[in-house]
């Protein structure tokens, strides 16, 4: 092994092991040497041996198994084509102003009527992946020590301790916020409502990614706002060119809502250069930039990515985030930092739901202030990566030819493109009859563009039941595709 | 003492004691005989002696003091004139469509900048009046037994146990609701937002009581709705004639919001006949009727009054309520039952903030299912009555001539009419300089009608500090009145 390179030692060692795996001398499933063996074998410190294993893990060449060490795996090479990049020139379709409500209501009604055995329509991990015990312990402690949590009035803006922890963690994403610039909300969805109500009036046009999560389309419709869908790359997210074009064509875009990291449903991640251009474009055009940070902590990355707001010099970026899917689905904790609209957003929050209850904030804040939070996130990411990959393998195996898929670098779900003409509504119906609930593509756009897509949750531990359900789904998709 | 009457024994005894108090043979402050002495004196059972004391207490002739028995008091006879009844013919003033936001923002900003020693601007009891320990115990138990409260997703509509308790209690107010017709919200304020969003579009006109609490005026303005203020009696609440007249004059009233019991700020209580006429009028005119039940449990009454919704035969009444001020100010628990708009309100709730966290619902639901809840309410009402009366006495003593006041039959506050021309804004400013925060009348109407009123909280235990503050306030009001 050459030592002339300037790479750190653990990186050199990682390259060595990757070579061994690629050459087949280390087979997938084989156990890697223990930390102690690695230290002896390569004459390195414990910390270097640890960094080596973590690097192999985060690059996808090894996986940790609880209490038994690291095991070789091969990063996914799917037997499926990736999705096409969108055409930035697409003229917005007036039909897309049509509402999403009735479709979602229909979806909800059918879901309620059905006997759902496996829910793949959500975007959430299974309960056992969340640190319920530690959070319960922290909340129990807070209840014991602080009677005022029940009898006193919740403080303005949210619990100061929690806001301080959030402001501190925001530094890693490049945001410099004082705790008073953090306003706690009932989940990210309330943050988005407040952001939109602060910057726009009913009748105004809001640019959104296409496809986007139907929750956002519902919010827009319920507020009387018009969604202008902007083509979005499955790799790099919102097309800045397309937004530029739309801004030139429609002079009146009031705001744009983007999910820069692990976009829902695409899983795309915006490169930093795109984020910067977006900030500039929005500044120049007077478009408020609303950043939805819901999934960032689920990104498989050594460093947390920079928030769009980290480039905000004018207060034009509104940052919205949530703990709901990364820390505890039972808690409805989100937050917003609204730049130049902060005072207006605070007033709207007070008017809409008053201050949040403190207890869950206190519990979450205590937990997030410790190393346990990052350990939890690391475990969650590792579990999700393996579940995404196994789901993708099953799709490659069971779904009809012509199915396409991008494997996103993190997150809770896969966005699956069925063969052209294979209507997601039909797949949804047939699957529901088998007790399998999927999120049909038509929910993710007001246009017909996503009608032949499905979004599948990867939050459940991969097992025979999931595998069987994916085989069933693949069979259904094949039938629908052949009949199309 | 005659025994020929058909009144129950305890009632006869109560009349006897009332006579003695009115005759002056029992002086205010004197200790009533102990339960044991009453039993011997009148040869009655313990339960009759207890009923006697409770009756004297609820009629206002005695007050219980923790661990030392019952003491004589005299129901209030104030040396002040009551307020005038409003003129139902008042033509709505277009100026009242002007916003409340800037005034409230100004109020909030000044409050934050000041060093507040005593806050009389709130509408809430002191923390010690709420059953924090029992609620904390119930919540701690729930946390121990139910990990899914943290890691699972909160159920649709709210915790089923809590909704069941709410539906059960609603029966006493004449409402027949299934638990599935109860939707849990973040306080009554969210319920009001949802109700208004369900029935009206921006630009629509909503009839409200005048004066009304500024929270409602803020909600209307933030939703782009126009408040049409309807004259309201300090005794009997919303003037049905005035609403009828307004409906004839302005054909386009979309909804009316009323607080039938202990209206904020007036403290008025609508007679049942008015409630019935209101239901009929709204049905006939196609006006949605939104009932805000926030304070009902604080009414001094042997029987809970009937909710407006109890007369609703068409689904036209939306019932909104809250636990925030009667059970626990630290919990943000409210609920809504929206009649024919139920599905739409559920959808808007999901879109605005998703389902509520479960823990506080579980704690509140457990507590409310026991007799402890009614005991708590009884204690709270008793304390508030004495505090209201002492505050009223102090106002009679310290405030300038021409001050007027109605003593409401329950609730957290007094609405004080200063002599004509005595601007509440000036009183507010001067009081704040002394560290006393009051709610100035101008916040309670978009018109100038309430400019010479103050709303004073009676939730603090009456003591020398409160008494001193009321004397200071009276002095300030006198100065402002003389300068006017
Ligand atoms: C991108 C995105 N933003 C916001 C939300 C809502 O977040 P919360 O549950 O925190 O309200 C979701 C959930 O579906 C989401 O996917
Ligand atoms: C009449 C009335 N309704 C509703 C509210 C708000 O209630 P909650 O705190 O439950 O949101 C208030 C509080 O000020 C009020 O006075």
UniProtKB/TrEMBL annotation, chains A, B:
GO MF annotation: an example: DNA-binding transcription factor activity
Domain (HTH gntR-type): residue spans on this chain: 7-75
InterPro entries noted in UniProt: Aminotransferase_I/II_large (IPR004839), HTH_trans_reg/aminotransferase (IPR051446), PyrdxlP-dep_Trfase (IPR015424), PyrdxlP-dep_Trfase_major (IPR015421), PyrdxlP-dep_Trfase_small (IPR015422), Tscrpt_reg_HTH_GntR (IPR000524), WH-like_DNA-bd_sf (IPR036388), WH_DNA-bd_sf (IPR036390)
Gene3D superfamilies: Aspartate Aminotransferase, domain 1, Type I PLP-dependent aspartate aminotransferase-like (Major domain), Winged helix-like DNA-binding domain superfamily/Winged helix DNA-binding domain
Xref: CDD domains: AAT_like, WHTH_GntR
Pfam families linked: Aminotran_1_2, GntR
Keyword annotations from UniProtKB, A to Z: Aminotransferase, DNA-binding, Pyridoxal phosphate, Transcription, Transcription regulation, Transferase
Family: In the C-terminal section; belongs to the class-I pyridoxal-phosphate-dependent aminotransferase family.
SMART domains for the chain: HTH_GNTR
Protein name as it appears in the record: PLP-dependent aminotransferase family protein
Keyword Lipid metabolism: no
Organism: Variovorax guangxiensis
């Amino acid at each position: 092994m050459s030592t002339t390179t300037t790479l750190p030692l653990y990186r050199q060692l990682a390259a060595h092991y990757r070579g061994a795996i690629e050459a087949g001398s280390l087979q997938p499933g084989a156990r890697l040497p223990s930390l102690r063996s690695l230290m002896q074998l390569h004459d390195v410190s414990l910390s270097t041996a640890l960094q080596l294993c973590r690097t192999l893990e985060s690059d996808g060449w090894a996986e940790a198994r609880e209490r038994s060490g690291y095991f070789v795996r091969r990063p996914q090479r799917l037997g499926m084509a990736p999705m096409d990049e969108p055409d930035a020139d697409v003229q917005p379709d007036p039909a897309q102003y049509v509402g999403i409500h009735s479709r979602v209501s229909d979806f909800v009604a059918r879901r309620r009527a059905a006997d759902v055995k496996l829910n793949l329509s959500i975007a959430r991990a299974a309960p056992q992946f969340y640190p319920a015990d530690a959070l319960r312990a922290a909340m129990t402690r807070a209840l014991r020590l602080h009677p005022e949590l029940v009898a006193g009035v919740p403080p303005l803006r949210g619990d100061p301790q929690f806001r301080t922890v959030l402001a501190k963690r925001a530094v890693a994403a490049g945001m410099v916020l004082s705790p008073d610039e953090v306003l706690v909300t009932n989940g990210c969805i309330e943050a988005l409502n407040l952001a939109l109500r602060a910057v726009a009036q009913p009748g105004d046009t809001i640019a959104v990614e296409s496809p986007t999560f139907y929750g956002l389309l519902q919010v827009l419709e319920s507020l009387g706002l018009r969604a202008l869908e902007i083509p979005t790359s499955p790799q790099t997210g919102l097309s800045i060119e397309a937004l530029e074009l739309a801004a030139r064509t429609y002079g009146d875009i009031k705001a744009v809502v983007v999910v820069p990291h692990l976009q829902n449903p695409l899983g795309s991640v915006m490169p930093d250069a795109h984020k910067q251009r977006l900030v500039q474009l929005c500044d120049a055009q007077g478009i408020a930039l609303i950043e939805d940070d819901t999934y960032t902590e689920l990104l498989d990355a050594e460093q947390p990515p920079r928030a769009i707001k980290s480039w905000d010099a004018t207060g034009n970026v509104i940052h919205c985030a949530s703990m709901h899917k990364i820390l505890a689905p039972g808690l409805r904790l989100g937050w917003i930092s609204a730049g130049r609209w902060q005072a207006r957003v605070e007033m709207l929050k007070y008017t809409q739901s008053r201050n949040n209850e403190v207890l869950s904030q206190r519990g979450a804040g205590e937990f997030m202030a410790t190393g346990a939070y990052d350990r939890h996130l690391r475990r969650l990411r590792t579990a999700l990566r393996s579940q995404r990959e196994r789901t993708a393998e099953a799709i490659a195996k069971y779904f009809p030819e012509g199915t396409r898929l991008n494997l996103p670098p993190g997150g809770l779900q896969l966005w699956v493109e069925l063969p052209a003409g294979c209507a997601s509504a039909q797949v949804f119906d047939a699957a529901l009859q088998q007790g399998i609930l999927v999120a049909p593509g038509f929910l993710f756009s007001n246009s017909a563009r996503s009608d032949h897509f499905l979004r599948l949750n990867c939050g459940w531990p991969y097992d025979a039941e999931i595998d069987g359900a994916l085989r069933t789904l693949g069979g259904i998709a094949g039938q629908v595709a052949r009949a199309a």
